[in-house]
Amino acid sequence: MLHRYVFSLLGMVLLLLGAGSSRAQEGWVSLVPGLEYRVVAWELPETGFGADLQVLRADPEVVRLKVLDARDFGGARLTVREFANRTGALAVINGGFTTAQESGTFASQGFPEIAYERIRTDVIAQGGIPNLLMVITVRVWADDNGNVLLDAGESVVELHTKMARSIE
Q1: How far apart are CA 121 and CA 138, in angstroms?
Q2: How many C-beta atoms surround the C-beta of residue 141 within 10 A?
Q3: Could you tell me how far CA 40 lies from the centroid of its own chain?
């Protein structure tokens, strides 16, 4: 039986910059011209663990993409809803610009055999730029031996993205 969870950023949401037509391709729902949404089913092979990834695709010729900072709105932190209310944005993805690394399992959701690791870094050697470009890596794997370490032969899925800080 496949178990599905809905993840939001920055667990596992992808922002894809689509090019060309604002016409929705198969599976995509057009929200407004230039902005489309779809849910992509993802599964970690041989585990029965999966997720529904919520994906936005924006045409940069039509939709304005902007990185915002909560401090510009008088707060240290803002929720996604607060950002949307204050800016009128049609879509908001909230991600802090702090480096961190964490790992664990999905035991609290009933899957102790599924492990994860999230890494956020701005180190140049990892593809980042200090205080300007964050590299985000998420790994989810079948932890066959229960040691919460990714060992050779364990099924793994890796997602990578980058997040830039606004320098206006």
Answers
A1: 12
A2: 22
A3: 13
